[in-house]
Amino acid sequence: MNSTVSRIFSDDTIKVFILLLSLIMSESCIRKKFHPGDYADSQESYLDSDKTRDFGDGIGFELFHPDQARVTLSVAEVKAQDFGKDFPLPGFDIQQNRNDYVMILRCQESYRISFLEELSAVETSGHKKGQWLWLDSLGNPSLCKIASRRLNGTRFEDMGASDGSFFYVVNPCVSEGLSSTGADGCSYLLAVSNTVSYRNSPGSQFLRISAELADAESAYDAVMSRLLGLSKRLMNSKSSCEFAINRQESQENVRK
Q1: pLDDT recorded at residue 248
Q2: Full-prediction pTM beyond 0.90?
């Protein structure tokens, strides 16, 4: 009986939920049709970057328009920090302004002059050109690679970097939950780091250790091979010795 009551209650709850959802959708549609001014005002309020999203009981937070997102970078340098003292990594601090995450490109130093020239032109023509520059750089993996697709913190350490000289390009973005547009987006107001020269990366250390391990394994195999050869020779010598002794004893027994 309890299971039957629970099932009826569950079905009734679902029906009530569907009814409420239908009423809400109908009310929104009616407002849009008969009071377009009010609907436009509500949409404009939602898209306004200076507004906050209210969850009731005085709980709310400010919304950001993706076009206004920007960041400031500290000097990029190689040092040991979060990853461990034995593995210094290139990294930098990020001061966020009206954004909650960033995307980061790692670009070859040879591309720096060309990139900065393009960026200078972008800054005089609008952020949408910044999007073209970002996508052009991202689409040329021989020059730039993604170092982080989504970094929410204020400190970046590049665990994927290889030995070489490079710079970073940072694109500030706003996630859907904090965006006044209701959608995830980036400003393409690109911030560029200084050049970093990096040596002895974890990857290069791994390759060096792997090579040393391969050399050690080869030396071990060589020693074991020599020991095996000596062992077989000793076994053959032992067998020959035992055969000679047995033969001598047999001859002596025959003489007796």
Answers
A1: 75
A2: no
